[in-house]
Predict the structure.
Amino acid sequence: MGTLGRGRPAAVLLDLDGTLLDSEPVHRSAYESFFAARGWAVDPGTYAHFVGRRGSDVFATLPGPWAGHDPDALVAEVLGHLAESPATPLPVPGAADLVRSYHSRGVPITLVTSATRAWAEYAVEELLGVRECFTALITWEDVTHGKPHPAPYRAACHALHVKPADALAVEDSVAGVTAAVAAGVGRVVAVTTTTDSRLLRDAGANQVIGSLGELSSH
């Protein structure tokens, strides 16, 4: 890992929620509303297990009051609470500019997200306004195994016809960093929008930054 260094990447692989969009507070609120509606007493720290991951994967593997319930049905309920939220996530400062900068230099860009395709399309088109900059979107529906499994990043590199070692990934979660590292991505940069820097480094990030403005597009 890390053979790419700080040179120009062959491709840029970008996470969405927490990396390009300040959406984790809205998602956390939706999960908390869902837990409350179910009457489930859940530790406040439980949401951390869902950050960067597909909700159904977490429900299927994490012990909790949801054991025995259909994970996909539970996610549908969470999405219902999310749809009722009046809050609209805002772009992380510098997100759209970073995407446009790489695109203008001819570097192919793929979104690698644990979110649904519907949310991903809406986010990059309506909230970020950079849909045309993405060569592909790798979403919840495109892989059998979600982050922290390497499958999403492998799929992204396959879609762009690049070797993982020649690519740059930008993430905000332990699950995302773990997935990129396991896929052999050459440079993994983590931004501390949602996760403590120590945890991101421990997961294997080559570089941890406080804002996207610290990431050079050169």
